[in-house]
Structure formats: structure tokens, C-alpha cells
Amino acid sequence: MERAEWLKKMRAQTEALYDRFAPIYWVRFGVCAGETHRQNIGKFLERLGARSSVLDAGCGAGLYDAMLLQPGHNVLGIDQSGKMLARAREIYPLERFPKLRYEKVGLQEMDFQAEFDGATCVDAMEHIPPEDWPGILDRFQKALKPGGPFYITIDATPKEESQESYEKSIALGLPVVFGEVADKIDAYYPRVMAMDSEEFIGELGDPAVYHYHPPLEQVRLWLNQAGLEIEEEGTGDGYFHFLARKKV
Fold it and tell me: Residue 58 region, left (φ>0) first, then alpha (ψ -120 to 50), else beta?
């Protein structure tokens, strides 16, 4: 299979699995959001003015939207999984949360022009292939108003794990590049999708979908090339955390 066709398949399967995952997302993760994530969202919010407009990209079921709303901001959550968005709307009904809207938009399809005072992308970029990273970061830059803050997380998978998966994927004949974790997808994905119980997600969900873990040096370069200046970075909860700002 050609790489472009394979990546298209990986994206479709990831969306399908998150649709399958949506009914139990809040039950499994709504009360155990990462403390480091919360701390960095707090830092992100400190960089915003009053009643700002915020883009929560790759929002899933809206895990952090309550925090983003609390200071009185207007929040738009976008995701490519329609069922995750449906779950978010159940948790945050419009009649109770009029400053929060949801739209089905993938990261690759964002087309906002200087509409937001700030933007977040939390625990979503690990499903994005390297070919799409520069374009997505450029779309974030265009979506932000000048000087707007941007918070993004990167899955901190050990390099050894990526190396092992890469070697196994090559042996399977998969059109991978280093950093992509895909060697178990063909075996796990149909197994997960066929299960009746949804308690499997924590153990089998991750290896059943595509992941890419870029080197930090590459992430820094991509952010800079997109016109997003890094102000702070750190680690915690299994992720690297970057707080950046659109260059004026």
C-alpha cells in the first residue's frame, strides 16, 4: 500500500475508534485529567485578556472546556469525531453553556483567519503524521490574532519504544517513517471494534490506532517556522507541554 493511501486509512480508523470510544470517554477520563495539563491550561489562561475567544482544537468530549470557560471566555471546540462532539454537547448543553460551541472540523481542515485570542491543542497531535504537522501549525498561526497564546501537548513516548515499533512495522511491510507507532494496529483494531464491552479502551485502544511521536527538536523547528514563538516548555503526565505565542 502506498504511504498516502495508508495514512488516509489510518486517519479513518482513528476517527472510527474515537466514535466507538465516545460513550464512555467522560466516565473514564473526566475525573482524572492530568494535573500538569491543568497547570499549563492555567498558565495559558493567564496569558489571555478578559472575555477572550478561545479555540479548543481536537477537543474530543470537552475534557478541559470547563476550565477554558470559567474566566468568562467564549470557546469553540472542534474535532473530527462526530460522536465525541455529541458526547461533549451532552455534558455541556448549549442552553446551560451559551458561550461554548462545537463544530466537526479536523485539524487538517481548519480555515480560521485571526478569529481567536488563544488556542489549545491537547492530546491530539499524536495522531497526526509528519506530513501534516507544518500545515496544521500554520493553520493555528493563521487562526490566532497577533500575540495570541497557544498551548500544545506532545506524547512523550520513549525513543526506544518508537525504535522497536519502527523495526517491527518495517518488517511487516508498512510504509512508516521513524517515530510512527503502527506495528499492532492491524491486529488490534478489528479486535477492538468487534468487542461488545467498552472496558477494553485503556489497554487496547492506544495500540489499535496510529500514533506519531516527533523529536522535540523537530517540534521546536516546526513551531518557529509557523510563526509560533515558544515561551515555556516542560514535561508531565506522559506529555511534553509547549506554551507558545503568535509572533507579532
Answer: left
Residue 41 pLDDT exceeds 70? yes
Report in angstroms the alpha-carbon separations of 223 from 135, 150, 219, 236, 247.
Answer: 11, 10, 6, 20, 11
Q: Are 72 and 97 in contact (CB under 8 A)?
A: no
Distance between CA 192 and CA 228 in Å, rounded?
Answer: 38
Q: What is the pLDDT of residues 64-80, one digit of tens each?
A: 999 999 889 999 999 99
Residue 201 pLDDT level (bands cut at 50, 70, 90)? low
pLDDT tens for each residue of 120-146 = 999 999 999 999 999 999 999 999 999
SS3 233: strand
Containing 214, the helix (H) or strand (E) segment is none
Name, in order, each residue with C-beta under 8 angstroms of 119's C-beta and a sequence gap of 6 or more.
54, 55, 56, 57, 140, 143, 144, 148, 149, 150, 151
| Domains of the chain by start residue, with CATH | 1-24+157-212 (no CATH), 33-156+215-246 (3.40.50.150)
The pTM (predicted TM-score) of the whole model is 0.95
What single DSSP character describes residue 195?
Answer: -
